[in-house]
Amino acid sequence: MSASDESRPATTAEYVGGNSHAFGPGRHLRSRSKVLPEHARGHNRALVLQTLYHAGAMSRADLSRETGLTRVTISDLVAEFIADGIVIEMGVRETVGPGKPPILIDIDRVGHQIIGIDLSGPSAFVGAVLSLDGDVLERREVARPEGPDGDAVYAAIVELARQLVAASTQPLLGAGIGTPGVVRPDGLVLSSPNLGWTNFPLEAKLSADLDLPVLARNDANAAVLAEYTFGDAKADFMLIKIGRGVGAGLITGSQPLLGSRFAAGEIGHVVVGTDGGPRCACGKDGCLEAWLSVSRLRDALTDEPTARDEILRDAGTRMGIAIAPIVAALDLSEVVVSGPADLLDGILIDSAIETLHARTLEGVFEDTLIRLTRQEDIVLRGAAVMVLSAQLGVS
After folding, report:
1. Closest CA to 175 of 156, 189, 162
2. What is the CATH number of the domain that holds 363?
3. Which Gene3D superfamilies does this one have (predicted)?
4. Is the Cβ–Cβ distance between 201 and 369 less than 8 Å?
5. Residues linked to residue 362 through DSSP beta bridges, in sequence order
6. CB 58 within 8 Å of CB 105
7. Is 195 within a domain?
8. pLDDT (tens digit per residue) in 76-115
9. Which residues, including other chains, have CB under 8 Å from residue 235's CB and lie 6 or more apart?
């Protein structure tokens, strides 16, 4: 929910059942800019919603103590949120002793829903209606058009999105899309060869077609947000998403790192080693994606089943070679990997850890971890975080 009245969705009619789910200590994506007086109200709105989202139901007095805002400010903001249908009163808290029991308030976690779409799958585009807590409520998918036909791809996305809109049961806060390729912060896809897009205004076009707020980001950048908000990640980490291709998202100092060309994390087409290697779709030999993509690994294991350990160990070594300078340059705490556990967990990740430690400064990076994410639907859930962040200031 943005601060402007014009972009607020319709209010909910009635709260149906409470949701006590609350996340760990409130963390938010840190802004690089100083909060100016004219931006203070928007900052306070986001701070209150962020606190409620992560801490769960609390009284207005509790909220004042947690945020450091005055009770008058909290009262005004909460009244505004209730009028907008964002926050609800949950009833009174049981107390012992004299005095009026406080009324608990919380974000109306079931009063709005979010659409998430993942375009990174090898054979289908997958979408879901999600709760504000990132839970998948309804799932749909459409076949991925064959070949890099940009028009056919977009038509399939519109079909999927409309199915999801029809499946939603509450007012929609917005839609988030994770797509392969280089994506500008305004949702313009600068380049996505596999989808047939160059300078394609995905966010603006789909927002107009659906009459909904739409956010479009690179799929790995969406996934890293899900790991940050819903997972166990620290404030400085990289998420490597391994599927049809290989890409990465980065968060440093609790801030997403996009880069000057919006291509931070595009590690799939970095050549790893000087010994050649498999031919990559980009035309080079030995790109990380050519060694590590799911299709390449499965094909190699099918062709040489007796060499399974060697193939996985070599792929892990290549991943370690690629990420070691990134870990050292950014002083990352951990690397999280998203992809099929049967391929990645065990030999491959163990080999990547061994290579990472061998190629970074001894005694400094020895505690840097590489681990598999425990999250399913990580791009869909990241798409939900994108909408929460843009519309409510919550992450």
Report:
1. 162
2. 3.30.420.40
3. 3.30.420.40, Winged helix-like DNA-binding domain superfamily/Winged helix DNA-binding domain
4. no
5. none
6. yes
7. yes
8. 999 999 999 999 999 887 766 676 889 999 999 999 999 9
9. 27, 251, 252, 253, 254, 333
- Residue 29 tokens read as 């994506």
Distance CA 106, CA 85 (A): 11
pLDDT at 233: 79
Q: Which of 137, 92, 131, 158 is nearest to 12 (CA)?
A: 131
pLDDT value, residue 8 = 34
Give me the mean pLDDT over the 252-277 stretch: 91
Q: How many CA atoms lie within 13 A of 150 on its CB side?
A: 13
| Alpha helices, H only, the chain | 40-55, 60-67, 71-84, 150-167, 202-210, 219-230, 288-292, 294-303, 308-330, 341-344, 347-358, 378-392
pLDDT of residue 29: 53
pLDDT of residue 17: 33
For residues 203 and 174, the answer to whether their CB atoms sit within 8 Å is no
Domain count, the chain: 3
Mean pLDDT of 20-39: 48
Range of the domain at 63: 38-107
Q: What is the CA radius of gyration of the chain?
A: 22
**Residue 78 placed within a domain:** yes
Residues 280, 265: contact at Cβ < 8 Å? no
- How much is the mean pLDDT over the chain? 89
Domain identity same for 50 and 182: no
Matching residue, tokens 């829903």: 113
Q: Going by DSSP bridges, is the β-strand pair 255-256/246-252 parallel, antiparallel, or unpaired?
A: antiparallel
Say whether 172 sits in a helix, a strand or coil: strand
Alpha helices in 112-271 (DSSP H): 150-167, 202-210, 219-230
User: For the chain, how many residues are written?
Assistant: 395
Assigned domain for 28 exists: no
Local confidence band at 28 (pLDDT 50, 70, 90 cut-offs):
low
- CA 221, chain centre distance (Å): 6
52: domain CATH number?
Answer: 1.10.10.10
- The CA–CA distances, whole Å, from 212 to 10, 227, 273, 330, 394 equal 12, 25, 46, 37, 19
Whether 129 and 114 have beta carbons less than 8 Å apart is answered as yes
Q: Which residue has the tokens 């291709």?
A: 245
* Single pTM value for the model: 0.86
